[in-house]
Design a protein that fits this description.
The complex is a heterodimer of chains A (113) and B (115).
Chain A (H helix, E strand, L loop, with lengths): L3 E3 L4 E4 L4 E7 L6 E7 L6 E6 L3 E5 L2 E6 L4 E6 L8 E8 L9 E2 L3 E6 L1
Parallel strand pairs in A: 2-11
Antiparallel strand pairs in A: 1-3, 3-8, 4-5, 4-9, 6-7, 7-8, 9-10, 9-11
Chain B lengths: L4 E3 L2 E4 L5 E6 L6 E7 L6 E7 L2 E5 L6 E5 L5 E5 L8 E8 L10 E2 L3 E5 L1
Parallel strand pairs in B: 2-11
Antiparallel strand pairs in B: 1-3, 3-8, 4-5, 4-9, 5-6, 7-8, 9-10, 9-11
Classes of the chains: A mainly beta (113), B mainly beta (115).
């Protein structure tokens, strides 16, 4: 089992609709969770971080965390063509000293006009 | 712009050669992590440096080594390059090395091609 799992997509969503991206993680003790956006040929850009159960909203983005189900999601409202990218779910596992981040393989999102 | 800069942006090397990649961390950040991202995959953690000491390592062989300098900039060295080392190498800086302080910001990456 991979430590962080995402559906690779592509996920195709019409412009203006809600895009829903999902992620599960294996280490129940994980404490910090992140969503990064990566455009083709570019480096990942942090768009959301979440540390406690529930929802966290920032503009058109909402991150949701459910530690009991080991599940993280990202909702993008009013999807725009510029949202077309690969979205990486990342988790900070509870290792003793190193604060390394474990990434999923990413979900490709395509917003169609 | 994250304030994390990497050099060079692109590099072509021959199998068996050695390479050094460089990273300047964001102002105020004392922790640098290096990641390898193969095509179609998520970034894989190589190692992290905190206050000039290696502070955790992923599943990479010893021919991947690094340094951190007093100004918190860092180098990634790879010896005896193999074709599978071709990837995007990412540097990320953050503040602190303990859990809960891991919001990491990435540089633009170095695209390494081994031929």
């Amino acid at each position: 089992q991979k430590e962080v799992e995402q559906n690779s997509g592509p996920l195709s969503v019409p412009e203006g609709a809600i895009a829903s991206l999902n992620c599960t993680y294996s280490d129940r003790g994980s404490q910090s969770f992140f969503w990064y956006r990566q455009y083709s040929g570019k480096s990942p850009e942090l768009i959301m971080s979440i540390y406690s159960n529930g929802d966290k909203e920032d503009g058109r983005f909402t991150a949701q965390l459910n530690k009991a189900s080991q599940y993280v999601s990202l909702l993008i409202r009013d999807s725009q063509p510029s949202d077309s990218a690969t979205y990486l779910c990342a988790v900070n596992p509870p290792y003793s000293s190193a604060s390394k981040i474990i990434f999923g393989s990413g979900t490709r999102l395509s917003i169609r006009p | 712009e994250t304030g994390v800069t990497q050099s060079p942006t692109h590099l072509i090397k021959t199998r068996g050669q050695q390479v050094t990649l460089r990273c300047s961390s964001q102002s105020g950040h004392n922790t640098v992590s290096w990641y390898q991202q193969a095509l179609g995959q998520g970034p894989q953690f190589i190692f992290q440096y905190y206050r000039e000491e290696e502070n955790g390592r992923g599943n990479f062989p010893p021919r991947f080594s690094g340094l951190q300098f007093p100004n918190y900039s860092s180098e990634l060295n790879v010896n005896a390059l193999e074709l599978d080392d071709s990837a995007l190498y990412l540097c990320a800086s953050s503040l602190g090395a303990g859990a809960g302080n891991t919001e990491a910001f990435f540089g633009q990456g170095t695209r390494l091609t081994v031929v």
